[in-house]
Design goal:
10 helices, alpha/beta, globular, four-stranded parallel beta sheet, TIM Barrel, single chain
Length: about 450
């Protein structure tokens, strides 16, 4: 993210000498104090695997490249992050932000660098890392984690050198890149901008052999006057998505605000945009650089904010100064009760109105079932007691033919369910979430849209 004030220049970012610095720790290990947090975050990523992207959650980092991990006296001296890109992903982040600037390098020629700078490149240093170094880290992590999906946001200040960046994305991600060509409609201009559709699922992306989606803000049209098109034949609009979903007031973009502008529950940020149907991803972020603290102090995104964002269904909460054992990861857990799932407790899950999911014997008679309408995805609780295996039949016979046995897939749905349960004085209720041969499976055999 570029500086929000453009008339301030830190003289020390323009120093013209460099020192060697360590590269990323690609052999890093999770150092979180509580392994349960990491396990449950993984389970949550699997819970929303088959749900539309607009309902999925991508924990993210802001200015992910601007990290102490790459800091020297002449680069990244005012960082947003503590960890390397690789370690951010390893810790549990699934959205990375990279700023791409076409600017002068230490070889006295221009290239695409990872810069924390203004749109006119003031603030870039000749010793800033090459953009390709960031791509290499993400590539290596994806290769080591073939069942994960990552959302990459590129803020571009390329002076028309999009074809070069398209070639770099093609080189480092190649067959793992989910491309606009896979969703562009029949009859559409083959060079047109395409917004990332939020009706697709992570499971569909993985099934197509892909792992990463790259999004940018804005559309340059079908035949922009880009530089180096003769050298790099890759088509920009076939490489990146222009925006996410279809927020009415933000064409070719997405819902994005700073955390200080978030309106609290139950408004949940809805009054600040026109995306009432949540067709886009909603991104609320913070900025903890020293420069921002001096010229434009901002609210920090703390654990209590993360908890509220998740409860509200904000699916792109974006953090600064992440650590491996960050308490905001714990705050992002909306699903399992503490210490669950427990070995030997049973293979089916109930939602406890106070604590969250708990695993118990599938033959236990619980107080009711969670049902979901197949088109709207609205949830309701029915108060007929029975075993877990009766869930689909109960939802169909009592709620209606378009209702199916279901499990919440995000914090907002869980909050809705708990409200239903409280109003009905229910303590626990079956959810369509079961352990199948050692793997927890959500909404098994349920039709999704």
């Amino acid at each position: 993210m570029l500086f929000r004030r453009q008339n301030i220049i830190l003289p020390f970012v323009l120093l013209s000498y460099g020192l060697s610095a360590p590269t990323w720790a690609n052999n890093s290990q999770i150092t979180a104090k509580d392994a349960w947090i990491n396990k449950v975050l993984q389970l949550q990523r699997e819970i929303d695997l088959n749900t539309p992207l607009r309902e999925a959650t991508f924990l993210g980092t802001h200015n992910s490249y601007n990290s102490k991990s790459y800091q020297t006296p002449v680069r990244y001296i005012d960082p947003n992050q503590n960890l390397s890109l690789y370690d951010q992903l390893q810790a549990g982040v699934r959205s990375i932000e990279l700023d791409a600037h076409w600017t002068l390098t230490s070889h006295f020629q221009k290239d695409i660098l990872l810069c924390h700078a203004q749109a006119n490149h003031i603030g870039c240093g000749v010793f800033d890392r090459a953009f390709t170094e960031g791509l290499q880290e993400v590539h290596d992590w994806l290769k080591a984690n073939p069942n994960e999906v990552v959302l990459m946001y590129i803020e571009r200040h390329l002076d028309g050198h999009e074809p070069r960046l398209a070639a770099e994305l093609d080189k480092y991600f190649g067959d793992s890149l989910y491309r606009p060509t896979q969703v562009r409609g029949n009859g559409e201009d083959p060079k047109s901008c395409v917004s990332l559709p939020t009706t697709i699922t992570k499971a569909e992306i993985l099934k197509s052999g892909k792992q990463i989606m790259v999004v940018v803000a804005g559309c340059d049209g079908t035949d922009p006057n880009y530089a180096e098109k003769d050298k790099f034949p890759q088509i920009w609009n076939d490489t990146v998505f222009a925006g996410i979903g279809h927020a009415p007031d933000r064409p070719y973009k997405w819902v994005e605000e700073m955390i200080g502008d978030f309106t609290h529950y139950p408004d949940c940020g809805k009054s600040t945009n026109q995306d009432t149907d949540h067709t886009s991803l909603w991104r609320f972020y913070e900025d903890r650089t020293m420069l921002t603290d001096i010229i434009h102090p901002q609210k920090k995104l703390l654990a209590e904010d993360m908890k509220e964002l998740v409860t509200c269904g904000v699916n792109w909460p974006t953090m600064d100064m992440l650590t491996m054992d960050d308490d905001r990861f714990n705050a992002a857990i909306w699903s399992w009760a503490p210490e669950y799932p427990k070995d030997g407790n049973g293979h089916c899950a109930v939602a406890n109105v106070t604590t969250g999911f708990e695993n118990i014997s599938c033959d236990t008679a619980s107080e009711g079932y969670v049902c979901q309408e197949e088109n709207t995805h609205n949830l309701k609780a029915i108060t007929t007691a029975g075993k877990w295996s009766d869930g689909e039949a109960m939802c169909q016979s009592i709620a209606g033919r378009q209702w199916h046995f279901a499990v919440p897939v995000n914090g907002a749905q869980m909050n809705t369910l708990k409200s239903f349960m409280s109003n009905l004085s229910m303590r626990e209720i079956w959810v369509n979430y079961t352990d199948v041969s050692g793997k927890w499976v959500a909404n098994n055999n349920m039709r999704r849209i």
